[in-house]
Every structure is written in C-alpha cells, then in structure tokens.
Amino acid sequence: MWQTVEKPVHRGKWRKFFGKEYFILKRKWNWIRNHHSFAQKRVQTRLEHEYMSHKSMLLRPLKDVDMILQYNKVKNLELAIGHINGILIRPGETFSIWKLVGRPTKSKGYLDGLTLENGQIGRGIGGGLCQLGNLLYWMALHSPLEISERWRHGFDVFPDINRSIPFACGATLSYNYVDLQLRNSTQQDFVIELWLDKSHLNGRITSNLASDFTYQVLETDHQIQQQWWGGYTRHNRIWKETTHKVTGDQTINLVTENNAIMTYNPLLEAQTMSSNKS
C-alpha cells in the first residue's frame, strides 16, 4: 500500500494569521446557528455504568524541549478540564472541546506550552492541550459516542517511547476550528469526567445505561515509506471492533487512515534506540 504524501508547504506569517482568524469567525458563526445542539450542562456526580477510563503521563522528557513548557502544560490542562469535567451529553447533543473551553488566553491564566506547527516545535499560550484531545478521542473510540469531528496529527514528531496505544490514535487541537466533537446518537446519557493527579491526566466516560457491547481498537497496515522528495512518512489504518456481550456478534469498521510526515529519520532513531539497549 504505497501512499504519496506531498512535501509540506510553508505559508507566510500574515497569511497564516488572517487565515486562522477567518476560520475562527466562521466556526463561531456555526456555534451561534447551532447553539442548542451542543452539550452545556454539567453534573456533580458520575453515572452508574463506566464505559472507558484512561490516563496519560503529564511529564515526558522530550529531546530538545524545555521542561518548563511541560510544567506549563499541566497548568493549561488544569484550566481546560475545569470547563469540561462533569459535562453531560444527552441524546442528540454534541460535545465540543472548544465550545466549552473557549479561547486560551494569557488573561485567563494560560501559559506558554509546547506547540507544533508544520512539524516544528514551538511555544504558544495554551500549548499542550492536544494531550486532552488525545485522551478524549481514545476514550470515545471505546464507547457508542460518534466522532463527528476529529483532526489527525499531520506530523510524527517524536519517536515511539513507551507507546501504549497504536500510532496516530490522537486528536490535534487548534482554537477553535480544529476541534474534537462527539455526537450522542444513542438514547442514553453520557458524562465525561477529567482530573489530574501528581503524574497523570485521567479521564472516564460513564452512562446511565449498561453497555451491551465491548469495544476494541485495532491497527493494520502500519508502514514507513520514503517519499520522492526525500522525507519519510508513516501510515496505518485504525479500526473499531464492536462485540455483542451475549451473542458474540462482531462488526469491524474503519475509523481512519493516517498519513503523517516524520520529522526524524526512522533509521537513525532505530540505531540510537538499539545502542541504548545494548
């Protein structure tokens, strides 16, 4: 399965700025027109039946990345989950990260965190919130919630180190038009819980009704290719396997096909990891 990925195009500073503001205004207009379809009510208690829980490490030593950006990320996550924890998603409603969190600004207490733009590591106010998108997306894949909007990471920036889930099972975020949205097309309620402990970002999805199904995420067709322009790209397909608890009947549906530009040389990285183990 050969996938051709074009070399990234670098756009000018002002073109990126005005383009971003245009899409932000366009998304805000969409919010106004569809205000009543978004989940807004928050509750204090969890629902009885747990569908999925997950946690991700807060601080990871990353090559050439100032650790202060990760400490700042923890603060940014704390502020953001304060707007989401306990959100009730009723039948017919759509959960949106940015509709609840709002624009991360310095005046709201957000700090400079790690950002990625065209595969380049940088810093920006509210940086690091993609970890929240990653966690919520992974949990949603193990529930009946429909993923109505998700943007994949276009670059593979960091080598696999202690990876516990398949490559590219995350969701990138950029206020407000690069969002993660989950639609509740069932006849039951769901609640999302989020909290921080000393080492992890934690999440849980619960419902008022027990599930008749189990969910598993599968990866196929993983490969690394060298493109005509010299860079390396990484590819895979992600599938969702749904199994009825009583009958054992299964359905397997394609969730997404990922194609990401690698910002490191996979051959050199493999040699480095091998040397470190020996």
Explain this structure:
The chain has 278 residues and is α+β, with helices and mostly antiparallel strands. Helices cover 23% and strands 33% of the residues. It has 5 helices and 13 strands. The protein has helices at residues 13-33, 67-81, 97-101, 130-140, 266-277, and strands spanning 49-57, 87-89, 94-96, 112-117, 120-125, 146-149, 155-156, 181-183, 190-196, 200-207, 213-226, 232-244, 250-262. A 4-stranded antiparallel β-sheet has the order 1-10-9-2, with helices on one face. Strand 4 (112-117) and strand 5 form a beta hairpin.
Q: Please tally the helical runs, counting DSSP H or I stretches of 4 or more residues.
A: 5
Structural class: alpha+beta
**Low-confidence blocks of residues:** none
DSSP E strands, number: 13
First CA to last CA: what distance?
34 Å
| Spatial order of strands in the largest sheet | 1-10-9-2
What general form does the structure show? globular
Q: Strand share of the residues?
A: 25-35%
Radius of gyration: 19 Å
Helix content: 10-25%
Largest sheet data = 4 strands, antiparallel
The run of helices and strands is HEHEEHEEHEEEEEEEEH
Mean pLDDT over the full residue set: 88
Could you outline the blueprint of secondary structure elements for this entry?
Blueprint: H1 13-33, E1 49-57, H2 67-81, E2 87-89, E3 94-96, H3 97-101, E4 112-117, E5 120-125, H4 130-140, E6 146-149, E7 155-156, E8 181-183, E9 190-196, E10 200-207, E11 213-226, E12 232-244, E13 250-262, H5 266-277
Parallel strand pairs: 7-13
Antiparallel strand pairs: 1-10, 2-9, 3-8, 4-5, 6-8, 9-10, 11-12, 12-13
